[in-house]
Amino acid sequence: MQDSAIQVIFRGKNLLRLFQGLWVTIELSMIAILISILLGFVFGILMTSRFKWIRGICRFYLEFIRIMPQLVLLFIVYFGFARTFNINFSGEMAAIIVFSMWGTAEMGDLVRGALTSLPRHQIESGLAIGLNQKQLYWYVIFPQILRQLIPQAVNLMTRMVKTTSLIVLIGVVEVVKVGQQIIEANRLTVPSSAIWIYGLIFFMYFAVCFPISRLSIYLESKWKE
Amino acid sequence: MAKKILEINNINKSFGTHKILDGLSLAVEEGEVLVILGPSGCGKSTLLRCINGLETFESGEITLEGESVLADKKNLPKLRQKIGMVFQSYDLFPHLNVMQNLTLGPVKAQGRPKADVETEARELLKRVGLADKEERFARELSGGQKQRVAIIRSLLLHPEVILFDEVTASLDPEMVREVLDLIGELAHEGRTMIIVTHELQFAKAIADRVIFLENGKIIEESQGKDFFASPKTQRAKDFLTVFDYSTIG
User: Fold this and answer.
1) CATH of the domain spanning B4-242, picked from 3.40.50.300, 3.40.50.10190, 3.20.20.70, 3.40.470.10
2) Closest residue of chain A to B159, computed from CA coordinates
3) Which residue of B has its CA nearest to A146?
């Protein structure tokens, strides 16, 4: 019965619960993205440091985060910290920590790439008119690398939004988890509800990520000026 | 005797084992136009970059009005504001329009009132025939126009001395003249300038003093036109001959 399968979505508070789950997804990923962008700039600047040992530490951190599956990182922070150091993070907190660590590393590498591709002359002209380091970054370097960064950063953002679906496994009730709960509750009466629920979740992720990528296209064309 | 603005005392610089500047000493007086000539790789550009603190050097000292250039890194931005520098590749900031390029240094680095700087910038733009370009971006200007803007940008800092690093080297031939005319005018105003160039005719016309550099050493130093009329060293003679086409054919 197709009809009744769709109706599962609208039964009771199911739709509201799905949106509440989606909000958890959005909230956690946006907090992590915001932290990642801010720290990513700092990390990226550190990665271009004159000092070899600073670059070395940054490189190690980046590779470490990249090699580790996000799920393992989540387990380390959520279960490992509780067991070993007796630090109990909530699932949400653990998620924000892990996604910020990951996002910072990836964003930092993007910032590093953009910084090193900026012509040396631009920096020297900035110095030659007497700007100090802070002014140089703020008025000369950042505005120029931003345009290059936007498409890659947006790509990272959408990856982060999608990867938050992993946090089901540390017990955070976000949109996928809510979906699973609804499907479980209706498994006997409406066995085919899964396709509709997951289908809706598909569109929900799309609705979150699509505007972000549109925004990047808009910004890119606007800053072509 | 005029006041010495810039003093370079026995500076040494190497890249690896290759000596770029070899115990070089030099003094520049107020209002003097000093032209530095020499084959490529002789250390001309490096010398300018050392004066501006863009390069470090191993030993020796550079002082601007008695202040040592590399003594205090924190003081470097302040010091650079007294030294205008114009580069070969003009390097206007592509994300800013002409006016924003001009005001960035004076307003943000020097903290001068924006309105005053803009008024002054407009006067200078008008003077170099670019009054209608203040809203334009670098990519909308020709090479010669960009270089004139870059020169104004350094003038607006009210520098004690202006360094020109082969400023016409990457310009189309017909653009070279407009830039050299501007530099010539500045020379007549009595500005202190150090010019690295390959435009020998221009150097001849403008130089109060010429130094000829090779392998990081000054091998000849002459007043103004003497260098071109009667070079003292064989090396300088050879150098000038390369640019003399009357012997062809």
Assistant:
1) 3.40.50.300
2) A129
3) B95
